[in-house]
Write a structure and sequence with these properties.
Layout (H helix, E strand, L loop, with lengths): L1 H13 L29 E6 L4 E5 L2 E5 L8 E7 L9 E2 L4 E4 L4 E11 L8 E5 L6 E3 L3 E3 L2 E8 L2 E6 L13 E8 L6 H20 L15 E7 L43 E4 L6 H12 L11 H9 L29 E7 L27 H4 L8 H10 L7 E7 L10 H6 L7 E2 L2 E5 L3 E3 L2 E3 L3 H12 L3 E6 L6 H16 L4
Parallel strand pairs: 13-14, 13-16, 16-17, 17-22
Antiparallel strand pairs: 1-4, 2-3, 3-7, 4-6, 5-12, 6-12, 7-11, 8-9, 8-12, 10-11, 14-15, 18-19, 20-21
Helix pairs in contact: 1-9, 2-3, 2-9, 4-6, 6-8
């Protein structure tokens, strides 16, 4: 399984074309690159620092330890080394070692490292506690110095995790992963398949090592938050079979229920699960907890509103966008704390149906005089009754402050396997992706794929939303549900997340 994830994700991560906004102001071909002399390799400085704090300098490099950061005096040493940086990173400085290794601070210390490189990309990379993997620290530049706060000692350098025209910003060590898992009665196998891939995904995020070969491919995610929602948004208050809560359904609220039918799963969990790589937490146990929540069961409403659920989950109550019955989004309410400003937000849709986010809840009224015919076909027959996909393009971008470079939108849905990786217009133009009645089963549409991995319907609205987001700078994955397992799809998602964590644009 991990080999499959590796082959696809590594190929995609290393082969991303760049794109440019034609309306944007042209950038200078050579950005201003401030420089300061670096101390030679092997040079070091030491000082005894106690509870009162103190400052230590090695050339232009400074380390400021505040009062109260240390409980007792400690001899602090900074050494300039000639050690190499990870091969897929661009170095703007040499590597520095801070000792004693593993020393932690009760209050953050401030480090300022001299560098020579692009100040818009310059990032302080710091090894995780007890690890050789580098993560990106929140960084600001002051002339030719890259400044960050640190909680412990390790090795560090200034650089970028990507180079060239496809880089748009500094790397980040934060990732918010939102899993939207279809809870309808046809999704049992797919949920289990996703659960199998979560340990490898978490391990890759925590180390930055895609293929497990010991070589770091992208900045490790120091802070990972994972939450799960379902596409069950009710049926506008109308009683419909399979929809037990007709007014709001699960309402885009982050799930706290564990699947107790799975061995080792508890009944309740926090609304989102957090993995801090430097806390010494068990990545395997964290992955198990994520899997317990992500296996949402199959008793959900059969009218999936994937886009509306995802949007409500990440929309603030203060936003202009409102939802059924005039209700507000949950980002700063029921889901508060999940969405972080500097994190890459990744939304993964695991579903075998097209989106049916209703603008008019009467669409679900069995006795509606306006919407007639088979209830199962109404989202197809009355497209004017569902929200335009532009609502979700704008709304998801707004959740990241309009910054598409911090957004990954991924579909694991009814996309024919041979169309994975194709442009959205090619996917949407394929005959298998056209919505049409099934002559053999007049109460459903013709499946877009029917394979050993399952039967699924054309997810046109999900692909269209992805296309709109991609035009605005987001990274998009369109993967197929109709395979035996979802390891290929997870590999593609990992590649796109790695790009955005590294600061790469497409």
């Amino acid at each position: 399984m991990f080999r499959t994830l590796t082959a696809i994700s590594l190929a995609l991560a290393l082969g991303c074309p760049s794109s440019h906004d034609p309306t944007a102001e042209p950038e200078p071909s050579e950005p201003t690159r401030p420089t300061r002399p670096e101390p030679p390799a092997g040079r070091s400085e030491s000082a005894l620092v106690g509870p009162a704090g103190g400052t230590l300098a090695l050339g232009d490099l400074t380390l400021a330890i505040p009062e109260g950061a240390l409980e007792a005096p400690v001899e602090i040493t900074i050494t300039a080394t000639d050690e190499p940086t990870p091969e897929r990173f661009g170095a703007y400085s040499r590597v520095y070692r801070f000792a004693p290794e593993g020393l932690s601070f009760a209050r953050p210390a401030r480090v300022a490292l001299p560098f020579a490189g692009d100040p818009t990309l310059a990032t302080v990379f710091w090894t995780l506690a007890g690890s050789e993997s580098y993560t990106a620290l929140p960084t600001r530049t002051e002339g030719a110095l890259a400044v960050a706060e640190v909680q412990h000692f390790s090795q560090a350098f200034v650089g970028t995790a990507c180079e060239g025209a496809d880089c748009c910003r500094r790397a980040t060590g934060e990732l918010d992963l939102l899993l939207l898992v279809d809870s309808s009665n046809s999704m049992a196998e797919e949920q289990v398949s996703l659960a199998r891939e979560i340990p490898a995904l978490v391990r890759a995020f925590a180390t930055g090592d895609v293929d497990g070969d010991g070589t770091q491919d992208f900045p490790a995610v120091a802070s990972l938050q994972v939450a799960t929602i379902t596409p069950d948004m009710g049926t506008g208050g109308h009683l419909v079979p399979t929809c037990s809560e007709p007014t709001f359904g699960d309402d885009g609220v982050l799930r706290t229920e564990g699947n107790t039918a799975v061995a080792g799963c508890r009944a309740a969990y926090p609304s989102f699960l957090s993995f801090e790589a430097e806390s010494g937490a068990d990545a395997g146990a964290f992955a198990t907890d994520v899997s317990c929540v992500a296996q949402v069961g199959t008793n959900g409403c059969g009218f999936e509103q994937q886009l509306e659920a995802g949007l409500k989950a990440v929309t603030a109550s203060t936003a202009a966008t409102t939802f059924h019955a005039g209700t507000a989004g949950h980002a700063d309410g029921a889901n508060a704390g999940f969405l972080r400003d500097d994190a890459v937000l990744t939304l993964v849709n695991l579903t075998d149906e097209n989106d049916c986010s209703a603008a008019d809840p009467a669409l679900f009224d069995v006795d509606s005089p306006r919407y007639v015919g088979d209830l199962n076909l109404r989202c197809f027959e009355y497209p004017e009754a569902v929200h335009p996909v532009s609502r979700y393009v704008e709304g998801l971008l707004d959740a990241k402050g309009g910054d598409g470079s911090r957004l990954v939108f991924a579909n694991i849905a009814g996309i024919p396997a041979d169309l994975e990786g194709a442009p959205a217009d090619v996917i949407l133009a394929d005959p298998r992706m056209q919505e049409r009645l099934d002559p053999a089963m007049p109460n459903r549409l013709v499946p877009s794929c029917d394979a050993p991995g399952g039967v699924a319907m054309p997810p046109r609205r999900l692909v269209e939303t992805g296309a709109g987001l991609e035009e605005r700078g987001a990274a998009v994955v369109n993967a197929s549900l109709c395979r035996e397992g979802v390891s290929d799809a997870v590999g593609q998602i990992l590649a796109r997340v790695a790009d955005r964590v590294a600061g790469r644009c497409e």
